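Give me structure tokens for this 301-residue protein.
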Amino acid sequence: MTDGFTGRWLVTEYVHDEEGTCIGTVRQTRTLETLANERIRVLQGCDVSPELAQHPMAAFAGDWVFEMSKEGCKRHYHGEDVVGLGLSLTPETIVGAGRWPRFGHDFLSFGALMNPHRQLTGGIFYDGSELQLVARIVGVAVAETKENAGVWAELDKTTKPYMTTLYWKGNWALYGSEGELRHQMDIQRRFEDALTWHDRRPDGTVRTVLLQPRGGNQHVIVSGIYNSSMRPVGSGFLYDYFLRMELDGMSGTRITLYETYDAASQCLLGVGYWRKADADGIPSQVTGYEVYRLFPDNHTP
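Here you go.
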């Protein structure tokens, strides 16, 4: 991770089931300290809520430690409790993948600084294939100080972005599988309501997203346009604390997109994983990462 992630953090992670409901929390103290050999040691102390006693996440309770080294934008996780690779896409955004050997599960993760004292985190634990999901998580962390020692931050799940304002603006970027920047642009978003919005790009093209409830209130069908040549459609899930969309792009591309709103920092964060499907149509290796941050646009309309 970058220097902005070092220090001691108080983290609240919300664990969700596949119906979109938050079924429990994990609170952790997370300390990142720079060692003499320039590696970073990560120490995590986790407390799992009683609601997860019969869930695989119950085994996440306790203390964990691993070391990390930097190589350009790459972050190598050397164990012993985490092995794998991370990518620092920007000084404020990191993605990671690998395995927790002692915990016994694989992971995909992301972390994004909202400001120097607050960050959003998220990802999944899974077994072997992402079809074998263990837990889907989103969280919030605050830097611990003397003033807030022992006070964990929380995400506000009742305030949705369209309630703050209908108009948003920010930056969208696409990165390659090695973390290289492929493309970036400014975008503007206009909400019509909770389930419909339009993202306008500088060239005038508009990505319109319409979420249509399917079955229950949390299952949705996604209809939309990225640009004139790629028209992803798919499904989505409205979780208590975030939105997940599974979008089908051109040439076998599958985009898994997580969107989380942090009302405290008034930031709408999107992190997407771009993959190519294998011969059986199952998404396999990651080919790119999509990241965007939107903030209230006080000058529109």
